[in-house]
Write a structure and sequence with these properties.
about 25% strand; Rossmann fold; about 500 residues; 3 domains; homodimer; Translation Initiation Factor IF3; BirA Bifunctional Protein, domain 2
Chain lengths: ~500, ~500
Amino acid sequence: MTEKKDTKQNRNSKELLTKRSEDFSAWFSEIVQKAELADMRYNVKGFLVFQPWSVFSMEKMYDIYEEVLQKKGHKPYYFPTLIPEKNLKKESSHLGGFTPEVFWVTHGGETELDEKLALRPTSETVFYQMFKYWIRSYKDLPFKTYQRANVFRYDTKATRPFLRGREFYWIEAHCAHASLQDAEKQVKEDMETTEEVMHQIFGLPFIFFERPSWDKFPGAARTFAADVLNPDGRVVQQPSTHFISNEFSRAFDIRFKNKDEQEDYVYITCYGPAISRIFASIAIVHGDDKGLRFPWKIAPLQVVIVPVSDDEKVVKKAKMLEETVKKIASVEVDLSEKSAGEKFNYWEMKGVPVRIDVGLKDMASKNITVFRRDLNKKEIISEKSLTGYIKKVADECGKNLREQADKLFEGKIKNVKNLEEMKKVIKDGGIARCGFCSVGKDGEKCAGVIEKEIGAEVRGTRLDEKEKPNGECVVCGEEAKEIVYVARSY
Amino acid sequence: MTEKKDTKQNRNSKELLTKRSEDFSAWFSEIVQKAELADMRYNVKGFLVFQPWSVFSMEKMYDIYEEVLQKKGHKPYYFPTLIPEKNLKKESSHLGGFTPEVFWVTHGGETELDEKLALRPTSETVFYQMFKYWIRSYKDLPFKTYQRANVFRYDTKATRPFLRGREFYWIEAHCAHASLQDAEKQVKEDMETTEEVMHQIFGLPFIFFERPSWDKFPGAARTFAADVLNPDGRVVQQPSTHFISNEFSRAFDIRFKNKDEQEDYVYITCYGPAISRIFASIAIVHGDDKGLRFPWKIAPLQVVIVPVSDDEKVVKKAKMLEETVKKIASVEVDLSEKSAGEKFNYWEMKGVPVRIDVGLKDMASKNITVFRRDLNKKEIISEKSLTGYIKKVADECGKNLREQADKLFEGKIKNVKNLEEMKKVIKDGGIARCGFCSVGKDGEKCAGVIEKEIGAEVRGTRLDEKEKPNGECVVCGEEAKEIVYVARSY
């Protein structure tokens, strides 16, 4: 049974070998396995098993995201997973964009189906087909929906756990509006939602870009997306929001009567936070050399209690403290057969925000030794202040992680005037900011040069502030019409 | 646009036409549409769109079920949706049972896959493949897992919304144990969980049967299942729990070292509450001639406030009350352009537990008129007692619905001595209790006679109490070895 790994029994003997500060990419692969976030040994390529330590956290992420969306008027649905080929064909650029990466269902039992069915790579053609039944009048608008769902992409690039897989977990929020102005308001709301959830609660800093025309979502008229920066200087696309092409509302015949009793087609936006990919960013951005760190609200476990000896009184005390802590946090007592040191390392690696060490010495003085993972700080507090202390960490821990993460961006964005300078900034793990000829079709050639010579991408123009270029395009030397940001991605 | 139906605008003009007491089956079809529980117009046969009014409730049902499972030590996972054909082939009766109703994925993009992949009809062969990596020693046992998931069956029978569809939503909890005794304990725990959630919280009475040998889950050594009774006398199978055949632990090589350092194969149980089907039972069992009724904890909306005129003061008052109620319940003010009477009917049809009517007359006397759906009773209460009143309904409403539902079973079970008596009991919408030769292989022939002559099924032997037969098999006249229950199902 030598191939067996990662069981409860032996997980503790395995310390983290790689330092995040030295090799972040190897660190990430290792932490996925050692913290038991996901198991890659499932026997279908590109598919993996998400294990409890990530699922507990992702479920909380779903709860938080869904609560915010509902507060803003989105209603939850469960739409079918299977899409008839004819739906996908209704909007040509959408089909073109997704056809190469769709899994097709062709048979039910022994029977060949009349029409092949796609496993949803995304659900525009599912939602919009139904919108026509539900929307009649401007009074029905905005019509705001969402679903939590797993989606499937037959991605031929190398998969990476949580970051790129053939089945992943997301929310897709689709809205129909009466006017382009309302659609624009929705994009702004989606940006605010991203700030509220991704940054304020999950602690992840990002920049919201409008993507260049050649990098739009298939079927979108305009695409906006939040880029999160990894320690290696690569950016990861997180929630994106789109003006969906008007072709869709025409193809799916989604009309409404406006205030003047005239028929019009709706304007559609969609917003998609990929929960399993955001989890990766949380692990990557907040992690450190010891392992994971979690903001309080999405920690799989908030408090762990470690009896530092197996003295009966110590164990009893640990269990008493568990009862107290249970009232305000999720908590577990570690009664496994490891040394105290091994337990410390293990729970630090797992990223539990607060550890309580229980020993005879502290008990005698009515003190408690606590370790908080956000600051990696050990403190001795009086027993009676424990509840207050935990509440304080609950309040501070997310904010501390966020502030530490915000520093990642500091100084990473550098102005460049030519490709030489750009090359250096990118090589140093930075993001280059520069003048650029055009983010319309005309600029694609210059973007191609950057990609070829530097291996980096034009991520787009900033959405949160209007930036005025002066000078020339960093590639072709024509007059710059935009300021763009260039970074490496995955 | 004549085909457009069920939009916000016109939903209110459509009253419920069918009385549940007169034609329960037509009532159910109608309520699914009028209460906007699901839309059947999706263009893939057997698939439907679950709308917010059912999804809000099903999400709460998931939360409740998952909390109970986690409290009992089950850990959450997300397993892949796709299963390689070879996994399904590992246990012959499982494959045999599911092959005719599996959707097969054969292509990724344009590429034909090396091996066809099944959309999970259930996930035994997915979980158990991974168990071998995670289980080593008796110390790892019991190993208790679950996932919330959508599953797929290419069911060739007629589909019915929520009750039988080609994609449905459930929880599947899989456990590995060190001994048959531990597996038996798990089945008992699953029964308790069913009582705790299905009966105590959802208010659904049921009987837990052990199914006859010919009616087992494919791949199970023994199958236990809860039958819920519908008003038309038909039973619906709700959560089932199974001893999984030992073939599985052998086929997937799930071994562990027992206390004596000997290698042994694990014993597996699985438990599966189908959330979307349970939702059907909630609608069906608690509904009445006016429409739906919901237990408080799973109501999509708990309180609705109806201003009975559009007087500005009344609307203002309604919004003030909303602020008060918001602190203890989910609440909405109905400001639509309908008459008060239409609003009353609409919200009664939707099953909201408490309605608050706001009018000038009540305002003058500092009173409030409230309507509670569990008892269909209107009451006038003082404004200052509102919060207390809502809390009282919150406490009582689930219990009241449960007690009303419990009465469904009362007198429905009747002892019968021969097929003539059985026919009459079944025709009257009852469940027949009788002596039976055998629930092993030998009895299948007699069960076939019952099915053919009466159109009813042997549901099994009671699990909660040991019942001793005396007398003869109701069909063949041989000595009765069991007492079985016979009912019609869908």
